[in-house]
Design goal:
This protein is an alpha/beta fold and about 400 residues long. Helices cover about 40% and strands about 15% of the residues. Strands 1, 2, 3, 4, 5, 6, 7, 8 and 9 form a nine-stranded parallel sheet that branches.
Length: about 400
């Protein structure tokens, strides 16, 4: 099925009743034409390398100020402990999440990095990815925020994929009192530049929108259209997340209304119809109790799920058990399948040389089935697997 136009998407902002049901049906038809009746997830560990950040998002509880309890950087030993616990539980992805460039704002962050032996946070990220590749079977996925071209290339050399949430193209939201005020890295053009640089470097990327932070419906559509245009130019966006804002105590937006399920389903269905069929569409299962309904609006992926670590961005929202996700998916005629941090299409023999550096490719190869999805367990004998993928 073809995508819809920007103008058609604008008109669907108030879809309800029969129009709403038809919208969801069209989205699921497009999903099934491209992805069948399979819904995927990635078994991961969450590695919160640092919770220091120079941005002050109005909805965030992840970032901490220097000197507050728990603020700082994980040590290499702590990183390995998390990774090995995940490895023992069958995880295959190490998701590095961190605040953006804290050393540019906080002298304490610079001092902590110097103690660890590094000049910048991204230097430390690269080193910890190398450590994970060297000491475990897991493959790093890096959410390091805005990056320059050199940093993108360095990430590609040590990661199977990377991510940066666009969140919104709305410049209004960087104004005083808005969600992204005092957030230099949330200026939309900066995030779009990082996505474009990743495209130029052929680094597989995750991005997405965060809904309910003050954006309009038109701005949601424009954000999705901007992502689609980047993918059409570079072909590097693996997945787009539609994520719902959840209000958190102690934040600027603690009392702001959250998107309801109809709003999420409407946005998700329009995203499926706007985006190219080759882009995976994801909605987080831990941010809504009735997450299986997303399958009725065109998603084909539930994202990273961890049996070992919390969602440190939304720590109050526990991951549902994989068996529960599989059961609810099955009731709707969908089969849950484990994938890797790189999607099967990117692991196709004609694609791997373009999208992966040698080190992450070897790691991915050891974990992949012939169809590119995840093995139940990692096995030795990389050479035979490399012959399939390369």
């Amino acid at each position: 099925m073809s995508t819809i136009t920007r103008e058609e998407a604008y008109a669907l902002g108030g879809a309800c009743g029969l129009q709403f049901e038809e919208l969801k049906a069209r989205a699921t038809q497009k999903r099934e034409a491209a992805w069948g009746r399979t819904v995927t997830y990635s078994r991961k560990v969450f590695v919160p390398l640092t919770n220091l950040c120079r941005d002050k998002c109005g909805y965030c509880t992840f970032a901490k100020e220097p000197g507050t309890p728990g603020a700082g950087y994980l040590t290499p030993e702590q990183v390995l402990a998390i990774v090995r616990r995940g490895e023992a539980l069958g995880c295959k992805e190490a998701l590095f999440s961190l605040g953006e460039k804290p050393e540019l704002l906080h002298p304490q962050a610079k001092e902590m990095l110097a103690t660890l032996g590094y000049a910048t946070t991204i230097d430390y990220v690269i080193a910890m990815c190398e450590l994970v590749l060297r000491k475990s079977a897991l493959v790093p996925h890096v959410n390091a925020g805005t990056l320059d071209q050199s940093e993108v290339r360095r990430v590609k050399a040590v990661a199977g994929s990377a991510g940066i949430m666009l969140e919104t193209v709305s410049r209004r939201l960087i104004g005083r009192g808005q969600a992204h005020f005092a957030c230099p890295d949330k200026v939309p053009v900066q995030r779009l530049r990082t996505l474009a640089r990743a495209g130029e470097a052929s680094l597989p990327m995750t991005t997405g929108i965060l809904i309910g932070i003050g954006e309009t419906w038109v701005e949601r559509v424009d954000s999705l259209m901007t992502i689609a245009a980047l993918h059409e130019q570079y072909g590097h966006i693996q997945e787009v997340i539609v994520q719902n804002f959840r209000a958190k105590s102690g934040t600027l937006m603690a009392h702001c209304p959250e998107p309801d399920m109809d709003d999420m389903l409407r946005t998700t269905a329009v995203a499926r119809l706007l985006l190219p069929s080759t882009i995976s569409l994801q909605a987080p299962p831990n941010l809504n109790e009735s997450f299986e309904q997303y399958l009725l609006a065109g998603i084909n992926d539930f994202g990273g799920i961890s049996p070992a670590t919390a969602d440190h961005i939304n720590p109050e929202r526990a991951w549902p058990a994989v068996d529960e996700i599989a059961h609810r998916s099955s009731k709707l005629g969908m089969q849950l399948v484990e994938r890797l941090t790189a999607y099967p299409a990117f692991l196709h023999p004609r694609q791997v040389a373009r999208f992966f550096g040698p080190k992450p490719l070897v790691a991915l190869a050891s974990l992949a089935r012939n169809d590119g999805h995840a093995r139940h367990q990692a096995h030795p004998g990389l050479q035979s697997k490399m012959e399939v993928l390369v």
